[in-house]
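// run 5 | inverse folding | seed 20
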């Protein structure tokens, strides 16, 4: 049994990945055939949930010819989705790997600007699709033109749903400074945590202190902070957990955070406890960095790596 999972992607992208021998200024760089994937935070979460044997409904804002092409890729992946009519043309992103060094260069184009009409369509669809008792994931960048408190407005449209927020920039700072009522989970990376804390979080204990401070302030019931290659820290009102990152060969860091969120949410939706969910999430993030370009985690890798990611109390 699995609780319903809804993901929301308002600023998706057609992800293209290619390789060149060397990146040299002023030269024509001959690329390999591009690999195309549907991209964007919530959409990647739904793709990873599918790869892990779970189910979700992805709400995706699509526009123009790029949006049509993106819809075809989502169908090919077998992800259940509903499209929201977005403004203008859906954005594209490009990841270029320099084969000589292994370095990746990521180019993210801006998405179209949203107005009141687009925001109203989202609120209407969320009210109709969010299931009480289910889990709703707001993940990825917010589209241009929406206010910093847009995640709070979105959460208010999903009454009775457990909301997971994984965002950055102004939207993250707004969610911390003006907590979203009833927010279930807030995830961030270590650099964002240090900026919000106004101090270095040099150890996992210091990170746990910060995360539990956020919980006590009512920012979210659970706060998760990623500590990069070291692992991940989770805190709620009664627990402080650390899950080490399994040691793997890194091919690409693209999609690691989305794979983490997917595995965590799926474990929770299946009724797993926080320690199991955190271990599965850390394993999924490690599994994702083992794959090429814009590919996400693979279920067999996640299951194999989970023992290395066992969560411990701190």
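// decoded
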């Amino acid at each position: 049994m699995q609780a319903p999972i809804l993901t929301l992607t308002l600023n998706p992208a057609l992800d293209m990945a290619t390789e060149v021998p060397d990146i040299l200024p002023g030269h024509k760089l001959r690329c390999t055939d591009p690999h195309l994937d549907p991209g964007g935070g919530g959409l990647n979460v739904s793709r990873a949930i599918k790869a892990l044997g779970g189910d979700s409904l992805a709400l995706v804002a699509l526009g123009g010819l790029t949006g049509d092409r993106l819809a075809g890729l989502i169908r090919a992946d077998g992800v259940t989705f509903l499209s929201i009519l977005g403004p203008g043309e859906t954005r594209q992103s490009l990841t270029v790997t320099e084969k000589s060094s292994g370095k990746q260069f990521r180019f993210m184009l801006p998405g179209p600007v949203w107005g009141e009409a687009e925001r109203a369509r989202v609120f209407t669809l969320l009210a109709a699709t969010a299931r009480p008792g289910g889990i709703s994931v707001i993940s990825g960048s917010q589209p241009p033109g929406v206010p910093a408190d847009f995640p709070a407005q979105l959460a208010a449209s999903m009454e009775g749903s457990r909301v997971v927020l994984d965002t950055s920039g102004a939207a993250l700072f707004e969610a911390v400074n003006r907590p979203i009522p009833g927010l279930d989970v807030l995830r961030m990376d270590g650099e964002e945590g240090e900026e919000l804390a106004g101090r270095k979080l040099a150890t996992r204990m210091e990170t746990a202190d910060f995360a539990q401070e956020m919980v006590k302030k009512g920012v979210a019931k659970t706060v998760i902070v990623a500590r990069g290659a070291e692992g991940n820290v989770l805190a709620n009102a009664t627990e402080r957990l650390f899950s080490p990152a399994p040691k793997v060969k890194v091919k690409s860091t693209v999609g690691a955070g989305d794979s983490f969120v997917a595995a965590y949410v799926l474990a929770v939706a299946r009724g797993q406890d926080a320690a199991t969910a955190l271990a599965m999430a850390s394993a999924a993030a490690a599994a994702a960095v083992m794959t090429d370009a814009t590919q996400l985690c693979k279920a067999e890798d996640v299951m194999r790596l989970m023992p290395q990611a066992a969560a411990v109390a701190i």
